[in-house]
Amino acid sequence: MKLYDDRDAELEPVPAQLARVARIDVSQLDARLAGARFIGMSDVDNPLTGDHGATAVFGPQKGVQPDQIASIDAALGHFADLLEPALNRRARDLPGAGAAGGLGFALHMLGAQFEPGAETVARQLRLDDALQGANWLITGEGRSDAQTLHGKAPFIACQHAQAAGVPATLLSGAVDGDALPRLSEYFSGCFSPAPGPITLDTAIREAARLLTNEAEQLTRMKYGPR
Scanning 29, 71, 124, 173, which has its CA 20 to 30 A from the CA of 132? Predict the structure, then answer.
């Protein structure tokens, strides 16, 4: 696939050029794609663009500044405006199109069938079997916020636990305070192992100790002292 600007000069296929694309040539796509079957696994159901899209939701986690969101989102939308008719497929609003910075959109455009990644892992790990007779499930991730509830692994684990009548507690590297009301609708407590303001280097270096200490304190709270 090749990208061209409004003067028909070929553009390098990098994000900074997306807004300049005027034409997309798909004539050289490998013919074997038509007979290939792709399966994508995604833990999120976000569309490509918009308020719940890749840039608005995930961009700030990856370093996108607030004043950059609109322009990057518009560039993705512009690219989709050209690619969808070129491949005769509509995908920007499909669940998971906004995953991995828009990689989900690319897979959808190749006709991929999507499965929830966390559900696949839960099935392979036989999570439901493990929950039988369990008293408590502790789950977590690097940073939990409102998009955790869009199908990410901790939320899927929580849903399985609830179905088994088992309370689920969230223990993540960081928890967005603004998202606590929503998260608390599902989790029996949401916690971070950081004892206070610490540097990223310290958090990484001391991760095992911090998690161990917080898990112990959670257990003491639930079951009392030894």
Answer: 173
Please, where in the chain does CATH 3.90.1510.10 lie? Answer: 2-116
CATH 3.30.450.40 fits 2-116, yes or no: no
pTM: 0.64
pLDDT tens digits, one per residue of 166-222: 999 999 999 999 999 999 999 999 999 988 888 989 999 999 999 999 999 999 988
- pLDDT per residue as tens digits for the range 141-171: 989 999 899 888 999 999 999 999 999 999 9
Q: Is the dihedral of CA 204, 209, 214, 215 positive or negative?
A: positive
